[in-house]
Amino acid sequence: MILVIVVGTALAFDFTNGFHDTANVVATSISTGAARPSVAIGAASLLNFVGAFISISVAATVANDVVNSAVVTPTVVFAGLIGAIAWNLITWSFGLPSSSSHALIGGVVGSAVAAAGFDAVLTDGLIGKVLIPAVIAPILAFLVAGIAIALIYRVVGRQRPGTVTRGFRYGQIVSGGLLALAHGTNDAQKTMGIITLALVANGTLGANADPPLWVIVSSALAIALGTYSGGWRIIRTTGTRIIKMDAAQGFSSQGAGAAVILASTHFGFPLSTTHVINGGVMGAGAAKRVSAVRWGIAGNIVTAWLLTLPAAAAIGALAYGVTAIFGSGALGPVLVTLMSLSLIVAVFARRSQHGAPVPAS
Amino acid sequence: MAAVIVETKELVETVIASLVAGVGMTVIFSVAIWGVARFADLSRNERPLAAGAAAALAGVALLATLAGVVFGIVVMTRK
User: Fold this and answer.
1) Does ipTM come in above 0.85?
2) How many domains does chain A have?
3) pLDDT tens across A239-261, in order?
4) Residue-range definition of the domain harbouring residue A344
5) Considering only residues 290 to 329 of chain A, which have any Cβ-Cβ distance to chain B shorter than 8 Å?
6) Taking the mean position of all CA atoms in its chain, how far away is CA B30?
7) Domain ranges (residues) in chain B
C-alpha cells in the first residue's frame, strides 16, 4: 500500500515538473515565431517522452549517490517527495523561480536525515554530483550561448535580415527539439531514480539496481503529459510572459541549453533544467546588450539556489516527522497526503482570491 | 580527496563537450545560413559560379550540423 502511494506521489511530482517547465522548453520557439504554440507544445511533449529513454545515468545518481539506500525506507522517499511538492507549490504561489530538481533532492535528503541522522547522506555524491554541477551548469550555458551568439552575429551580421531570420527559425525547430529531448532525459530520470530508490527500500529491487522498464515508461508518460497540460496554459499567457528575442538568439540559447543538459546527463549530473535554460537565454541576451537582460531574474535564481535545497529539506524532514508519528504503515502517508491536498486547495484558493503572482520569467 | 568529491574529470569533459557542441554546432549552422543568403544575393546579381559555391558551402555546413546532432545523440545513448 505505502509503495503504491509513493509511486503515485512520485509520478504526480513528475507531472508537475513537466507542467512547471513547459514555458522554459517552448517559450523561445514561440517567442521568435519559429513554431506555433500548439506545434511547439505537442513536439516538446513527444520529445520529452522519447528523451526519457535515452539514458539512466541521472536515475542511477539519484537512486545511489545522494542518500544511503540501506537506511532509506518508502516512508523516507514519500516524505522527501512531499517536501519537494510543497516547496514547489509555495514558490509557485509567490511567483519565485524554483528548481523542481533541487527541491526533490533537498526533500529526500531532509527526510533521510530526519529518519537516520546525517550519516544517511552521501556527502561526496551530494557535493560532487549535485551541488557543484548545479552552480557550474547555468554559468556554462550563459557562456556557451554568449560566445555562440557573438560569433553568429560576426558570420551573418551583414546578410539580409529576412533570410537570416528565416534560417534561424528553421534551425530552432532542431534546437528546440533537442532542448525538449534534453529536458525529458534529465528531468524524467530524477523521478525514475526516486521510484527506484523506493523499490530498493521496499526490498522489491536489489541495491544499485537499474530502473525497471515500467518505471521508465510511467515516468516518461507523466512528464510528457505534464508538459502537454502545462502548454495549454502557456498558450493563453504567451503574449505577456515571454521575453522577446531574435531568432538567432533563440537558436543559440536553445543550442547552449541542450548541449549543457545532454553533456551533463551523459555523466549522470542531475541538473536544474530551469536554471540552465535561463542561463542560456541570459547569455544570448547579454552578448547583444548587457542591459537587455532582466538581471532581477538572475538575482531571483540565485536566491532560489540558496533557498531551495535547505527549505525543501526542512519540509521533507517535517513531513517525515509527522508521517512517522503514525508508524511505518500506510496510515501516516495517507494522512499526510490528505494534508498536502488541503494545502494545494488552499494555495489555489489564495491565488483565485489575489490573482496570479507576478511572473518570475 | 577534493578531486574525488568534485569529479573533476567528468566536469571538465562536460564543460568541453558543452562548449564544442553548443558553440560549434551553432556557428556551423550560421555558416549554412550565410551560404544561403550569399547564394540568393549572388544569384540576383547573375554570378552563377560564386552562387553555386555559396550553395555548396551552405549544403556542407547543413550536413555537418545534422551529423553533429546525430553524433551527439548517439554518444549520449552509448554510455
Assistant:
1) yes
2) 1
3) 445 567 889 999 999 999 999 99
4) 2-136+177-243+309-354
5) none
6) 8
7) 26-79
